[in-house]
Specification:
Blueprint: H1 12-33, E1 56-60, E2 66-68, E3 71-73, H2 75-83, E4 91-95, H3 101-113, E5 119-121
Parallel strand pairs: 1-4, 4-5
Antiparallel strand pairs: 1-2, 2-3
Helix pairs in contact: 2-3
Subcellular location: Cell membrane
GO molecular function: transmembrane transporter activity
Pfam family, one: ExbD
């Protein structure tokens, strides 16, 4: 009886396991990131922590998309939704640092036109 020479490793089972693990990781990663607007905030040295219970959160994404809370809105819908809210509520405006400046200014203009005076710009410290 001749002894077979072992000169290669069968990597197919290892590839199968790695693909299954990749699917599991990607699936759980999408569940974790669901409901979060990805923004890369600019840094500010004078950032203060203040978070009242009632507030209005507005976000501008890198692509210029506007979010009121967690819902995407266009510029006209933003004005309509803000018109019915209390003007004394603080507004927290988050804008991605790679976003176009004109989208940020447009949101500020709409807030000022509606009479909001407590506008806070969210940054990282």
């Amino acid at each position: 009886m001749a002894i077979k020479k072992f000169d290669s490793i069968n990597v197919v089972p290892m590839i199968d396991i790695m693909l299954v693990l990749l699917v599991i990781v990607l699936t759980t990663a999408t569940f974790i990131a669901k409901g979060v607007i990805p923004l890369e905030l600019p840094q500010g040295k004078s950032a203060a922590e203040y978070s009242p219970k009632e507030k209005i959160r507005i976000s501008v994404s890198k692509k210029g998309e506007i979010y009121l809370g967690d819902q995407a809105v266009d510029k006209e819908a933003l004005s309509e939704r803000l018109a019915g809210k209390d003007r004394q509520l603080p507004v927290y405006l988050s804008c991605d640092k790679a976003a176009r400046y004109d989208a940020f200014v447009e949101v500020l203009d709409r807030l000022k036109a509606l009479g909001y005076g407590h506008i806070n710009i969210v940054t990282t410290k």
